[in-house]
Structure prediction request, 648 residues.
Amino acid sequence: MEKIKVGIAGYGNIGRGVEKAVNAAVDMELCAFFTRRDPAALQTNTPNAKILSVDDAKSMQGELDIVILCGGSATDLPKQGPVFARLFNTIDSFDTHAKIPDYFTSMQDAAKDTLSILSVGWDPGLFSIMRQLSLAALPTGNDYTFWGRGVSQGHSDAIRRIGGVANAIQYTVPVEEAVQAVRDGKNPTLTTRQKHLRECYVVAKDGADKDRIEREIKEMPNYFSDYDTTVTFVSEEELKRCHSKMPHGGMVIRSGSTGENQHVMEFSLKLDSNPEFTASVLTAYARAAVRLHQEGKRGAMTVLDVPLSYLTPEDPAWQRKNLL
Amino acid sequence: MEKIKVGIAGYGNIGRGVEKAVNAAVDMELCAFFTRRDPAALQTNTPNAKILSVDDAKSMQGELDIVILCGGSATDLPKQGPVFARLFNTIDSFDTHAKIPDYFTSMQDAAKDTLSILSVGWDPGLFSIMRQLSLAALPTGNDYTFWGRGVSQGHSDAIRRIGGVANAIQYTVPVEEAVQAVRDGKNPTLTTRQKHLRECYVVAKDGADKDRIEREIKEMPNYFSDYDTTVTFVSEEELKRCHSKMPHGGMVIRSGSTGENQHVMEFSLKLDSNPEFTASVLTAYARAAVRLHQEGKRGAMTVLDVPLSYLTPEDPAWQRKNLL
Prediction:
């Protein structure tokens, strides 16, 4: 069987995770990296793969079965997504939930001869699958998504922008009582504050006013003011030692009824490394995209459009025998 | 929009659950029941639906978009499945795991002009989806399926066949320490006995030798001898009062790694009524089967072949906006 030829665009945390996952996959071959940096300066762990500028992507058209886009949702993907989708089948982890419909439209317009599966990962991604499955199985009910305990990059960055802050890590933490009430089928109405806590570990610069920093964090609109927030000042050394991993996770819980009978469905993730797990999911959907394209499918898709049998290299008969 | 015309074959616990789910669905109309009993004697809760003998199924060909087969896996479905699949699109909950490949072949042969999705429910069904999704996301790892706490009909029946037993209910119960070890990512090797307990509530006939009954239960091969089994004798009144519901549930847990990082995925169900929840899943897949048939798909399928967007009446744009 010929291996799937994969390209990676962007070599940050997700890109490095995808590199690892593709190199571990029995049916894939990592052929190229695309970078916005100077290609000559990029060091990867895949010596046989080419390294090109994103601007030279066109030179690889026809050479790759799929490109996995590993840029960020804020600025990279809205620009790069359609450019790559005109040339290659693509997978990405676009995760700005409110902008997914617009992004879908722009990818749909671009992927005329190709196939692009967008917003792949765990949320959006596996959690979206669970929300759809649980809505299908329990049309009468409520679903709840909790995130954490895990590092939020966006919230950590927001703290780092405060004057006097040298470094910071923020954990999003689900409120245990809220989770329990949902699991017990109580269908509670929960405010933002009742669902999640925010734990901040902050390194202050020498001589900085810690009271002011703590106040500025806790009063920051959108990011912190609607949450119960704790601020703990630590040394740079302690931050590196105790808070340098990128764990995450969360759960989707649906509680619903069929007449007088109550049912609870729950899907949960506990991840040591958010980017590596996300990368692993992206890699599985890359396999699916290539197969769907071979079958003649074109345009934009999401995880809700992909038959699950396409995600693993094992054939359907094996899956029926061993997984069903 | 024209409603999906549904038939139900078999009016036991699952059939009654499907009746409830179809009548609650905004996009479905329950048109016919097929029964092996005397049609004139069958009382349903859907006065407008026809009641026919299974032997007269052919008379409804072309009148129904789908028939949901609600018979048992031991004898009903292997016989009825292919007969109905020649006439209608079908959904069933065939759950004899070891015989699924053979059943798939016989349904594939029968469904030449129709579409049949088999082995739908929660295991096989939603749990199969989770095993596939978690294998895709974590190719390096182990998965574990636990069932319960819930009533096993097969085990309850086995106890009832013992001399001196008037009635009995058996609960399958996951061993908490085993579940915890899996959740903690310890990847334990577990024997049958280490995974599940069996709790039996037994009504003895007047004058029956309870010691002998208890011994016969605990020593019964396949059903009980490989498990830690408890036997509690209760009155018929207590059995009715405390053990007449059909709760069930369970979990699929996969623990795996991406290099040095560990991840745990878990899907769990807590169901007040096993047959009603199963019926609800069958009904969602009935919707998918009709759409796939309209698109030209024919033959046998399982839950692994069905795009999840087909399971709910909401359109894909709504799903992307609200679920992704």
Remarks:
- Chain B has a mean pLDDT of 96.
- Chain B touches chain A through 62 residues (CB under 8 Å).
- The two ends of chain B are 25 Å apart (CA to CA).
- Residues 31 and 49 of chain B are 4 Å apart (CA to CA).
